[in-house]
Amino acid sequence: MTILDATIQALKNLGGKAAYSDIYEEYEKVVGHSITKNQQAGIRACIERNSSDSDGFKGNDIFYSVYGKGKGVWGLR
Predict the structure, then answer these.
(1) Which of 6, 12, 41, 54 makes an SS bond possible with 48, Cβ 3.0 to 4.6 Å?
(2) Angle in degrees, 0-180, between the axes of helices 37-49 and 20-31, rounded to the nearest 10
């Protein structure tokens, strides 16, 4: 399972939108193990790469910023 796949599944499990802290916790359940701070950074980067709401947008527009940039709450489009 890729970071993107696990992140999408975590957000689905959380009802389609959540704060980063909740995404990390659910991501750990999806992948079946604890994650490091570096892995948390990878999740954030994955979300930002796949959201046109982010300056780091580079690909598929899968996520959106629920309350605007910098708020740390993301949802599935």
Answers:
(1) 54
(2) 110
pLDDT in tens, 6-61: 999 999 999 999 999 999 999 999 999 999 999 999 999 999 999 999 999 998 99
Do the beta carbons of residue 65 and residue 51 sit within 8 Å?
Answer: yes
Residue 3's nearest CA partner among 55, 56, 51, 39 is 39
Q: Other C-beta atoms within 10 Å of 6: how many?
A: 21
Based on its alpha-carbon atoms, the radius of gyration of the chain, rounded to whole angstroms, reads: 11
Number of neighbours of residue 77 by Cβ within 10 angstroms: 12
Distance CA 26, CA 9 (A): 9
